[in-house]
Amino acid sequence: MRKFNKALVVPAVALALTLGACSSSTEQKAETKSADGKELTTVVVGASPVPHAKILEYIQENLAEKNGLKLEIKTFDDYILPNEALASKELDANYFQTVPYLKTQSEKRGYKFEAGKGVHLEPLAVYSKKLKAVEELPEGGKIGIISDPTNQERALRLLAQAKLVEIPASGEVNVNTVKKLKNFEFAEVAGPQLARSLDDVDLGVLNGNFAQEAGLAPKKDGLLVEATENNPASNLLVWREGDNNPGVQKLEELLHSQEVKDYIEKTWDDGSVIPTF
Q1: CA-CA-CA-CA torsion for 3, 6, 7, 8, nearest 10 degrees?
Q2: Any signal peptide, and if so, which residues (predicted)?
């Protein structure tokens, strides 16, 4: 189920019909005009609400029109539907995912997508409402962790830095394959529920966007924060393979502009979002 920025909830059957009906909508869009009569190309882009949609809104308000663009931004609260909508041509591009996640989903679902260069990183961090340090995890304690496989591996590698688990030498990395180095229980939770689950666990490993939505920041609130250097989890713009949409390419260019870099650094000076270009 998808939630757009107007909190519209669409039943699964209706959604399937909608996607089918809109399958070629991005190909049929006519150019629009700016206030001074210049032609603008509309680009429909899907994004997570924070920080992705906020970055796109900055571009729409400050950079798009003078570069011949009009952005139509659709927000998604999950990690599955933005790629489904892109594959079905309901979107021209999406901006919500990392390289490892894109690779995993493309292999699993057969997507034929291309990706731009990394735009920003949202550091993963361990948070707690009960403890002041990771080392305080009690015997038999509980750790909240995302259920999504790609992000779960990333979270487990952070817990390995805290010497709470040992990563297997080969094969899949998930809550069932790691070796626990302390007596505790995992609570697998869907990403959007992670922050709310902090009341019920001793530690929670939160993705940056979900932490931000809950008012948490790694520098201020994180007990352990993943390293940013050589981190593959940079977020990027993604579009369909072979779809040489000039509007999408212009958006990719603007996402890597000095103006956007300055905006990210100023808006998230708590380190919760870091430009990677």
Answers
A1: -70
A2: 1-23
CATH number at residue 200: 3.40.190.10
Query: From CA 271, how far away is CA 112, in angstroms rounded?
Result: 33
Provide the domain limits for residue 36.
12-122+232-275
Amino acid at 33: K
Q: Cα(168)–Cα(170) distance, rounded to whole angstroms?
A: 5
pTM, two decimal places: 0.73
Is the pLDDT score of 32 beyond 70?
A: yes
pLDDT score recorded for residue 35? 66
| pLDDT reported for residue 225 | 94
Give the residue carrying structure tokens 């394959």.
177
Most confident by average pLDDT, 11-25, 30-44, 67-81, 203-217:
67-81
Q: Are 85 and 220 in contact (CB under 8 A)?
A: no
Do 176 and 198 contact (CB within 8 A), yes or no?
no
Burial of 140 (C-beta count, 10 Å sphere; 0-12/13-18/19+): exposed
